[in-house]
Amino acid sequence: MITLHVQNMLRMRKLQFLLLLSSSLLTAGFLHAQTDEPHPTVFLTPQDTIFLSLRGGEKVFPHTIRAGQSLYAIAKFYGISLKRLYDYNPGFRNRNYQVGEQVFIPIPNRAIIRYWRPGMMRSEYAPVCYVVRKGDTVFGIAKRMFQMPIDTIMRRNALYDYNIEVGQPIHIGWMSIGGIPDSLHHRHRGPLWDKSYEMEQQFNQLALNKAVHFERGPAYWPRQRGAGEDSGLYALHNKAPKGSIISIYDPMSKREVYVKVLGRIPKTYDPSTLVVVSPAVVKMFGALDNKFVVEVRYLR
């Protein structure tokens, strides 16, 4: 009887163990599935690698669109406006996007952590690599592109000489999987750019509750006596409310300036004139002609 009792206890413990093991495997499988298919709000994971390339002189990387992610949410995560995302991905402007497609995102140097610091956790950062292209050198990558010592790049990538190949990934540093603050995209270029950046923040906040209208056409600036470069960020526009902020984008310089609308365009100007800008705006664009084509966004 004792032997039979012991055998029954052993069978019961074995069954409990098998049930526990089965439950653990199911849980592990579920967690693995979650890891393979991140939640739509997860844009980067520590398992991702950010492979940078150059486009128009700026560093970009292809973000793969996951199920449930919108272009607006992607742009916000990486600290850029939806308009700027479209500037880098014009093919997405007038069509629907698909899950699995790639959208190029600009990455500022200030978002890249070049040196591992005490207290940083691997689970909170994704590695950043630069993909070598034709004509690149170790010196150019280290000094000109990322402002890093050459020996740091060579040591981090186990390079024993200066020979690198096209397509070779070079480990540069790390980036937070929490996203990029928009302030890291803002470069301090003087008081006028700082003012434009402040107005951009106001514009984006108001755009949450107002319709954004888009126009493309000629901008004009008056070369007249007394119109100095310190005339401020102002414009005349026929549709945007007086006192409101508008965005003016110059496709030639690829620069965007936010200005305040002072009033309507006088009838003495050419009827085709979309916006009249101050000399300060012209200086920021680097425009030379009295007329140049711009894209304007305004709120109503």
Describe this structure in words.
The chain is of the alpha+beta class. The protein has 2 domains: 50-184, no CATH class; 191-299, RlpA-like domain (Barwin-like endoglucanases). The protein contains 7 helices and 11 strands. It has helices spanning 2-36, 71-77, 82-88, 138-145, 150-156, 191-206, 279-285; strands at 50-55, 58-64, 102-106, 125-131, 169-176, 212-220, 234-237, 245-250, 255-263, 275-277, 291-299. The strands form 2 sheets. Strands 6-10-7-9-8-11 form a 6-stranded mixed barrel. A 5-stranded mixed β-sheet has the order 3-2-1-4-5, with no helix packed on it. A hairpin with a 4-residue loop joins strand 8 (245-250) and strand 9. Helix 4 (138-145) packs across helix 5. The longest helix is centred in the N-terminal third of the chain and has 35 residues, at 2-36. The protein starts with a helix and ends with a strand.
Spell out the key features of this protein.
single chain; about 300 residues; alpha+beta; Barwin-like endoglucanases; 2 domains; six-stranded mixed barrel; 7 helices; about 25% strand
How would the blueprint of this fold be written?
Elements: H1 2-36, E1 50-55, E2 58-64, H2 71-77, H3 82-88, E3 102-106, E4 125-131, H4 138-145, H5 150-156, E5 169-176, H6 191-206, E6 212-220, E7 234-237, E8 245-250, E9 255-263, E10 275-277, H7 279-285, E11 291-299
